[in-house]
Input
Amino acid sequence: MVEYFSEAIALLFTLKGIWFLVLGTGIGLVFGAIPGLGGTTAIALIIPFTYGMSAEQAVILVGGIMGSVAFGGSISAILLNTPGIAPNAATCFDGFPLAQQGKAGMAIGAAATSSSLGGLIGVFILIAVIPIAKQIVLLFGPPEFFALAVMGIGAIALSTGGKFLRGLIAGGVGMTLAFIGYDAVNGGVRFTGGVEYLWDGISLVPALTGLFAVAEMIKLSIEGGTVARVTGDVKITRVSDGVWATFKNFPVVLRGSAIGAFIGAIPGVGGTVASFLSYASVVQTAKDPESYGKGNIRGVIAPESANNAKDGGALIPTLAFGIPGSAEMAIFLGVLILHGLQPGPLMLIENSSVIFSLILALAVACVLASLVGLATARWLSLITLVDVHIVAPAVVSVALVGVYALHSSWEDVVLALVFGWLGYLMIRYDYPRITLVIAMVLGELAERSFHQSIIMGDGDWRIFFSRNISLFLLVITVLILIAPAVRLLIGQWRAQGETSS
Amino acid sequence: MIKRLMTALAVVGVALAGLASAAKAEFPEKDITFLIPFSPGGGMDSQSRAIAQVLSKYLPNNVNVIPKNVPGAGGKKGYGELARSAPDGYTICVINYPGAALPALLGEEASYDINTLTWLGRMSAEEYLMAASPKSEIKSLDDLKKASKPVKITSTGPGSTAHVGASMAMSVIGFKGEFLTGYKGSADYILGIVRGDGDIAVAPVQTFQKFVESGDVTPIMSFEKKSSFDGVPTAAEAGYAELDGMGVERYIAGPPGMPDEIRKALSDAIQKAIADPETQEWAKQTNRPFLGLDADESDQAVKKSLAVMVKFKDALK
Output
């Protein structure tokens, strides 16, 4: 394997190689930060420009984009409560409150550091796992997807922050929204009211953009002021605090990256689920779950490690079977096809230089992107101090343009506005948006996997328990759900024990 | 006086005729949009882009042919956009057949009518293969026929072309099957049988190739005219003539009512683009051969196929 890497290094560290890497990183940062655009769009747009390049050069460019998009997106998530790409939505939950507390610099610092660490760990896991990649991918089928989705949805119960009933209601609404569209399992169209646009269901990026960015801007416009509530003592130069916090919470980084790589490795699940599950895991195992959603730095570290690690993970099925582990990987395979390469189980052997160039570019790009982010974090954080009369229109217009640019669809823009209104109502009446989003994202996966599993098990629901991995995951879910209650009981016993003696 | 009037009218008439023919000869004057009703990165997308790039060479005035992805609703969004566009030759679209014909065959409402589109040519035809999971008890066509419980067939959903193929196979061969759908794409449902979620799946031979070679799936029956795999019978050899040659075809079409000269111009350009050495080289390297038909041949092929498929309407529901 070392020869493959030295070949890739030689290809990368040429003038052209470095130029493409830097270009790709820049494109990725910008496309990631502008809500609605994202890595898939960026790669799709540069495809025509790659015709004249060699396959390795095209791949370095693509790797540069892939490695930096997630971090670019975290910047808008933190500063403007707008996820740059869907996986950044989990970063909004704690990132934006931090910005509101004047700690934007810290949040960006943490996001940058966890993104690069996460990306590197993801690549590392990829390399370690390549020999057994096939077996791992084959272990996860619909019953396991269902168990994972349930585990994530279980986080809803814990992240409601004391508003249990409202959290459940929001979660219920989210689930219902997840069911809109064509049901591929039974072949019928549900809840679309005859509107062809809704055939594919609620499009995630416009919905999230509306729910977070637009809603927040509406609220700001009504209340006036700036994003950062605390204008007096705002310490913009706390970027290094964020970096240190990440290293202090290295276990969170490890766990987030592992979850990210792992979920990224399962085709059909996706980066959004990865970052949500990572966020859920850190909430579920925290001693102070109520502090999440209010500016807990771990709530930024966990999802950001995950959404970078997922790229390394997504390469696992891509290399094992030629089956893309994510949308970006699908386009990446398209780029390969365009250059005359044939993706498949033998890709690693037949096209090693291309594959390793990608892995290397991915790894270097996420570090490069983070360095750029750290350097510019100070100035970026100043956005939180800009008066709402400038920020709100700017954010809303950029966000909506980005949403439109996704599919050149004005319906997406309307959807974003509708969700913006919904999001504002939820802020106003104090319903947690987190639970709605979690339910919406995981609901579809849960339902589809459930149906598929039942068909696989010939109508017998015990299939979830007869397979080792899904059983294991479900047991963990139950444990996590009862953990707070158990902790409470243990605390009470201990207290009783002390008073009686 | 009348003579002068007649001369004036004649001059005007000639001028207008001259202008009209000049206008006609001008096609194409601006860039042409090539709609691709699926997400970027897949086989349909790559093949369409490969053609789009070369097509401008063979069109007068060297206009560009710009691919535009319009994914959604299993292709219906893109087909709808095509149907709504003006039939002036500036909007063409790649058609996934017989997937695009499903709404008409099933009697559903759709924003386009497959029977009225202007066929400009065919790019490729990939025949199907039926293969089984290594974890399944089904190892051959005989096992399939003898199966006591319903066989699980993986697919993306009732709207897909492969699903159509599988449904027809079920009806013709006469085995009991149950669909395991909901997978996001052909790669995913093939992975589904590799993993053992389902027993069999139907997909183009090219898509299955790498999995057969690596031993991840067991080929059972090929819908090809001549089987690419040793020991695997073709549908015709096994006695199922109706399934012979079944597969997915990629046509290029324009909106209904396109004028004949424009149709011919595009048809010729497409066939030349397919025959272009650059395209052929790409096809060889990626193992996606072109099997071109021109506009008239395509028109006939589609009408013939639709006539056959209408008979299987009930099996498709």
Remarks:
- The longest helix of chain A spans residues 468-500.
